[in-house]
Fold this sequence. Notes:
This protein has 173 residues and is of the alpha+beta class. Helix content is 23%, strand content 28%. The chain has a five-stranded mixed beta barrel.
Amino acid sequence: xxRHPKRFLARSVAHEFLRNTGLKALALGLIVASGxxxxxxxxxxxxxxxxxWIEGVVVDAYFGHPHSELTxxxxxxxxVPVPPPDLGPAANFLDPQALTVPDDIAGRTVILELxxxxxxxxxxxxxxxxxxxxxxxxxxxxxxxxLNVQWLRLPDGEVESRSGAMSYMIDQC
Length: 173
């Protein structure tokens, strides 16, 4: 059986295009997935043993993918309020009596990662540079020790709170 040269060439070109495009798409997908995996710290473990009290002025607010972030300037005399705040639903997995202000964050600017949920992603019109906020975050045991918000008091006093611990949260490092 004799092949038609133009038809054979068209199939070869199409086959090669799909093979190369498919391999490139697969490679790109793996790179993006591994970058997101490493970026979000899913290999990390966030300790519930010492939830961190954050209170300060937002110097930068980013609301978008892969997750929203607040950059917050903290005062050097930052302390856990007495009595501790009512953590609402977050009290199901966070002990307000265990709240702490680690020495390495007081007086510094920190980046808070907001959970990638609609509950937090929709706050972009309510938080901006200059806003005063308070938060309770859990810290990743692994470098770079990201701070993941579990409770957030907005500038208007309203509170957003997670209702349960996530699988990447552990009792202690």
